[in-house]
Design a protein that fits this description.
Blueprint lengths: L3 E10 L2 E11 L3 E7 L5 H8 L7 E6 L2 E3 L4 H6 L2 E4 L11 H5 L6 E2 L2 E2 L1 H14 L15 H14 L4 E5 L7 H16 L3 E5 L3 H7 L2 E6 L2 E6 L7 H9 L17 E9 L7 E6 L3 E5 L6 H9 L6 E6 L2 E2 L5 H7 L1 E4 L14 H11 L11 H13 L16 H13 L6 E5 L7 H16 L3 E5 L3 H7 L2 E6 L2 E7 L5 H8 L13
Parallel strand pairs: 3-10, 3-11, 6-9, 9-10, 15-20, 15-21, 18-19, 19-20
Antiparallel strand pairs: 1-2, 1-4, 4-5, 7-8, 11-12, 13-14, 13-16, 16-17, 21-22
Helix pairs in contact: 11-12, 11-13
The protein binds adenosine-5'-triphosphate.
């Protein structure tokens, strides 16, 4: 009997049919991957499973018994735990207190902290997680906080555990630790649901997979390993995508952007590089190698200790991002959602904010025709799933919010240098393809494009040249015809580390 069964689940929001008659099953000891474009309905299904939303129709069954959850507490009581994208924890409490929140052991009417720590320490050891139960959550990394959530699920004896894009903020090493834990939970016979946009990790972890498109279930594959990548992509996006990177050679003009000897408190070694007009320069390195810091320095977001930036032979004043933007240099940051999302503003307003800053459109409340046109063009080009341009951005799925913020930077007038930090994180494969096309178009128009990515196949796929960083220094440069995984990893990893040790997802 399937441990978990969705039967004809339907959920409608104003203007959006998020789920339309979705049925599938997942078994104990199985990792079931959920795949689909941004806005396909994956998170909504998880929220129904976790008792956050009630379905408009359909049934949810656990071990053959129908459940109607009215709250998250109902779901937990029935043995369901959800590891959400936005983790839920109390930062000021300890690991033990968070794990046992609401169920802390007492002695003589007082919380028995020693017992709580002992119980949690035993459980952490059992699932192979190395964490101090007395540490405060505020002191832990995202990966460690996630481990706390998983430990909590296990201690609540969850039979079904669902993960919503758990690796999006993890390093390769942290991802490996998470995978080991998920595999252990599978071996214990739990039913696991796993959402991700990274096909490589889905292939590594999932036994079966279910593909969603526009709120409908397209197919469930019982043995994911037997399904070719192209088939999965075509089912997700509803069309064939031959070469997702869509690389086309471009003519390169003279050097337009030059960074000379840039350094700061965090990047003490002077860093220099140049980019030609029409060129896409990729930056690869492990988390913490200094790629984002270098770009923030170039952009003026962090204070420089020395060095200069030249654009078309003229020095760009180091007077903060506004000076860089005025010169035509734009940086789309890694944590797009935190930086600059106007949650209660519409999709159109979020896209057009930089154009307004330039005074190209009318006043704040004026729905200028140009703005509407620009918003609609991006909604179409990036396949942003929204009922219309007036929808509040906070009501969009996570990946679609990312696309809107990305569109804002792509719409920047007077663009000469476009710097994209992890532009496709959390973004579905169809939209990735559209973003790569935009990158090509921006470069082909004579601009410089710099792309930072931790996904090695992505930078190798789109860049004309690759710069690799390690420990705050440029460790090497590879022209496109010499850039491959082995060469890039050899430059990115600490001296002597075998390239195979770093799984690149
Ligand atoms: N509270 C809400 N109000 C209005 N619309 C919503 C709400 N929650 C979700 N939606 C819409 O429902 C659809 C499905 O969203 P959902 O978050 O389930 O997608 P997803 O497949 O998880 O996408 P992603 O990969 O981007 O996380 C989207 O069009 C989204 O905008």
């Amino acid at each position: 009997m399937a441990a978990l069964q969705f039967d004809q689940i339907t959920k409608t929001f104003p203007g959006v049919k998020a789920l339309n008659g979705v049925s599938f099953e997942a078994r104990p000891g199985q990792v079931m991957g959920l795949l689909g474009e941004n806005g396909a309905g994956k998170s909504t299904l998880l929220k129904i499973l976790g008792g956050q939303y009630k379905p408009d129709g359909g049934r949810l069954l656990l071990d053959g018994r129908e459940h109607r959850f009215s709250s998250a507490a109902d779901a937990i009581a029935a043995g369901v735990a959800i590891i959400h994208q936005e983790l839920q924890y109390v930062a000021e409490l300890t690991v033990a207190e968070n794990v046992l929140l609401g169920r802390l052991p007492t002695r003589f009417g007082l919380v028995d902290h020693a017992a709580a720590r002992r119980q949690v320490a035993e459980q952490l050891a059992r699932i192979g997680v190395d964490l101090d139960p007395a540490a405060r959550l505020s002191e832990l990394s995202i990966a460690q906080r996630q481990m706390v959530e998983i430990c909590k699920a296990v201690m609540q004896d969850a039979k079904v555990i669902a993960f919503d894009e758990p690796t999006s903020s993890l390093s390769h090493r942290e991802t490996d630790i998470l995978f080991r834990l998920v595999k252990r939970l599978r071996a214990e016979g739990r039913t696991l649901i796993y959402i991700s946009h990274r096909l490589e990790e889905l292939y590594e972890l999932c036994d079966a997979c279910t593909i969603f498109r526009d709120g409908r279930k397209i197919v469930t594959h019982d043995v994911m390993a037997q399904v070719p990548r192209e088939r999965l992509i075509a089912d997700m996006v509803g069309r064939e995508l031959q070469d997702i990177y869509d690389y086309r050679p471009r003519a390169h003009g003279p050097v337009r952007l030059e960074a000379r000897g840039l350094h700061s408190a965090r990047l003490p070694a002077p860093l220099s590089f140049a980019v030609r007009g029409g060129e896409v320069l990729g930056f690869f390195g492990l988390v913490g190698a200094g790629r984002s810091e270098l770009m923030r320095l170039l952009y003026g977001a962090d204070a420089r200790r020395g060095g200069e930036v030249l654009l078309d032979g003229h020095a760009v004043p180091s007077a903060g991002p506004s000076a860089a933007i005025a010169a035509g240099i734009v940086l789309c940051p890694e944590d797009r959602k935190e930086q600059g999302i106007l949650a209660h503003a519409s999709v159109a307003e979020n896209i057009n904010i930089s154009c307004r800053r330039h005074g190209l459109a009318g006043g704040i409340f004026l729905r200028h025709g140009q703005e509407a046109q620009r918003a609609d063009a991006f909604i179409q080009k990036l396949r942003i799933k929204t009922p219309n341009r007036e929808q509040e951005i906070r009501l969009l799925s996570g990946g679609n919010q990312q696309k809107v913020i990305l569109a804002r930077w792509l719409a920047e007038p007077g663009l000469k240098v476009l710097i994209l930090d992890e532009p496709t994180r959390g973004i579905d494969v169809g939209a990735k393809n559209e973003i790569y096309k935009i990158i090509h178009d921006v470069a082909a128009a004579g601009c410089c494009v710099i792309v930072i990515s931790s996904e090695l196949p992505e930078v190798l796929g789109i860049a004309d040249r690759l710069i690799v960083m390690r420990d705050g220094r440029i460790s090497g440069e590879l022209p496109r015809d010499q850039a491959n995984e082995t060469a890039a990893l050899a430059l990115a990893l600490p001296d002597g580390a075998p390239a195979a040790a770093a799984a690149v997802h």
